[in-house]
Amino acid sequence: MAACLAAPRASLLPQAPGKQAQAAAALAPRARPRVLAARPQQRAAARRAMTVTAMAAKLIDGKAIAEDIRKELKAEVEVLKAKYGKTPGLAVVLVGERKDSQTYVRNKKKACEEVGIVSYGTDLPETASEEEVLKVVADYNADPSVHGILVQLPLPKHIDEQRVLDAISIEKDVDGFHPLNIGALAMRGRDPLFVPCTPKGCLELLKRSGVQLSGKRAAVVGRSNIVGMPAALLLQREDATVTVIHSRTPDAQRICAEADIIIAACGKAEMVEGDWVKEGAAVIDVGINAVDDPSAKRGYRLVGDVNFAQAAERAECITPVPGGVGPMTIAMLLRNCVDGATRAFAAGH
């Protein structure tokens, strides 16, 4: 399946109509009243259509690439079953009743089902103690049928998230946040058992879209432990020259505009504007932000950390929001779980 969908570039300059066109326009019925009478949803759709027409960049289709990866993983799981008579298992621990967390957990369980991974889960009440959560993690650490453990964040305020995450066995740390995994990622000549899912997905999008990394300049906008920092480390491993842009970076726009590759993960809606993007750059937008939009059915729309319309006029390829990085995060979680199971089976566990 093609990863990038080409869209035509439309001229941004007004074109002077010829005499025939002027005559035809004079005879044609005026459509303006119909446009003004259109429903908000129709006007929003028209704006989206105009944006696609004007863009020059290729869309990096994260949904399509994630679907390809899930198909590959399903085939790998079948091979593991045939070879070892065992199936990879992923355990998810949910504490509390946050609706968004419950939705994320359901999506992860559904994704496991699609590729043949056995899904385990423990739901604890909001009032669960830290020791109770640690006991659940310890039990999954000791369970040989579980090859990945994921504790859904955020945890209730009375629980020390860091202590809980550090308690996960490094062999089952499919989120890739264990200090030993991050430390190995940062060191030349060492390989982590797992890499954090979102930055791993960003690199996979670039590679499967044919973007050259070695010898290229890359800018990572944001320095979080979850995305920015590991994304920068992964780009360095691919021999890119990496600059991390953060809230204290002077002249951030100029620095970013020199990059061949941009990974935006700053958590600020449309911060990376068109003049931040070098002509022909590859842009990966990790952000997902809700901004007010009265014309939208829900009263808001989702945008990334990149001004998509502006950046798409300059970039070679770009991820949309939604439908870009998001689907890849779960795909990489499944990838990590299957990799963990493969190592465990090969070791006789």
UniProtKB/TrEMBL annotation:
Catalyzes the oxidation of 5,10-methylenetetrahydrofolate to 5,10-methenyltetrahydrofolate and then the hydrolysis of 5,10-methenyltetrahydrofolate to 10-formyltetrahydrofolate. GO terms for molecular function: methenyltetrahydrofolate cyclohydrolase activity; methylenetetrahydrofolate dehydrogenase (NADP+) activity. This is Tetrahydrofolate dehydrogenase cyclohydrolase. Residues 60-175 form the Tetrahydrofolate dehydrogenase/cyclohydrolase catalytic domain. Keywords: Hydrolase, Multifunctional enzyme, NADP, One-carbon metabolism, Oxidoreductase. Pathway: One-carbon metabolism; tetrahydrofolate interconversion. It catalyses: (6R)-5,10-methylene-5,6,7,8-tetrahydrofolate + NADP(+) = (6R)-5,10-methenyltetrahydrofolate + NADPH; (6R)-5,10-methenyltetrahydrofolate + H2O = (6R)-10-formyltetrahydrofolate + H(+). Belongs to the tetrahydrofolate dehydrogenase/cyclohydrolase family. Residues 196-343 form the Tetrahydrofolate dehydrogenase/cyclohydrolase NAD(P)-binding domain. GO terms for biological process: tetrahydrofolate interconversion. Homodimer. It holds the Pfam family THF_DHG_CYH. One of its GO terms (cellular component) is cytosol.
